[in-house]
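Long-time lurker, first post. I've been practising inverse folding by hand and with some scripts of my own, and I keep getting stuck on stretches where the structure tokens seem ambiguous. Below is the full token string for one chain I'm working on. Before anyone asks, I'm not after the true native sequence, just a reasonable design that respects the backbone. If someone could post their per-position residues I'd love to compare against what I wrote down in my notebook.
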């Protein structure tokens, strides 16, 4: 069993002048194996900053607090060490990498995380099976990484990485954005396959409840003004669908 613990996390974005604009203002959150947490909030509330700060993006500076995975200091780790320790981030806007095929990227990533290269025959079989589950054409493996991908293709590829890299804790940032209903069902099914293993924990960052109809969260956290302002079960997501974030935004402004 694994546990990601976030305590009093403050972080911000470094501007061109080298100054850090605070975005996160004291986040406390614990994610354990077998749990799915949904983080919901309006645009600009700091949800992506939280994901990037945990993953180690260089533009996002942690100014206070701690992040540990199974007692190990995540913030002291390099980005690749965080991945090897068992953290995974599916980005909202994956980067295009011309000249690098999906297949080569995935095999290189697996090698880096596992510490040894998988046998080519084994890797090819794993890749083919995972792509079949995600209803991806076999030719997709030979395309340049994210180059010219549709929104649905980018998100399926993120879930393909998730299934092959098999992390302990997966942070999925706006995985439902840009998906039509068919792609949403396929991507959600991939997340649910990952969740079937009780050793895995999931954090779903989203604006909307539509993905939560297919991926049932155990906990829902409302994120406003760089901090968690409300917590509950899946019923909280339904309340947000009805009433929106207005009362939380007003409450944060008053505070």
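-- Answer (accepted) --
I ran through it position by position. Result:
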């Amino acid at each position: 069993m694994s546990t990601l613990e976030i305590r009093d996390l403050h972080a911000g974005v470094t501007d061109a002048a080298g100054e850090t604009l605070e975005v996160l203002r004291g986040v406390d959150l614990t994610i354990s194996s077998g749990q799915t947490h949904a983080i919901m909030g309006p645009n600009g509330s700091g949800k992506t900053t939280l994901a990037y700060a945990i993953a180690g993006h260089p533009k996002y500076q942690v100014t206070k607090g701690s992040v540990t995975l199974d007692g190990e200091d995540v913030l002291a780790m390099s980005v690749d060490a965080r991945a090897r320790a068992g953290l995974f981030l599916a980005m909202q806007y994956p980067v295009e990498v011309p000249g690098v095929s999906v297949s080569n990227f995935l095999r290189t990533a697996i090698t880096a995380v596992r510490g040894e290269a998988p046998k080519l025959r084994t890797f090819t079989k794993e890749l083919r099976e995972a792509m079949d589950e995600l209803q991806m054409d076999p030719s997709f493996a030979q395309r340049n990484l994210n180059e010219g991908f549709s929104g649905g293709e980018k998100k399926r590829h993120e879930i393909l990485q998730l299934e092959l890299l098999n992390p302990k804790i997966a942070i999925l940032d706006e995985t439902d954005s840009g998906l039509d209903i068919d792609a949403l069902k396929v991507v959600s099914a991939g997340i649910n396959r990952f969740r079937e293993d009780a050793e895995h924990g999931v954090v779903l960052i989203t604006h909307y409840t539509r993905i939560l109809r297919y991926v049932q969260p155990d906990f829902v956290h409302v994120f406003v003004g760089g901090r968690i302002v409300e917590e509950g079960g899946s019923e909280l997501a339904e309340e947000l669908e009805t009433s929106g974030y207005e009362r939380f935004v007003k409450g944060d402004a008053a505070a």
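A couple of notes from the structure itself: The chain is about 35% helix and 30% strand. The CA atoms of residues 93 and 105 lie 17 Å apart. Happy to go over any region you disagree with.
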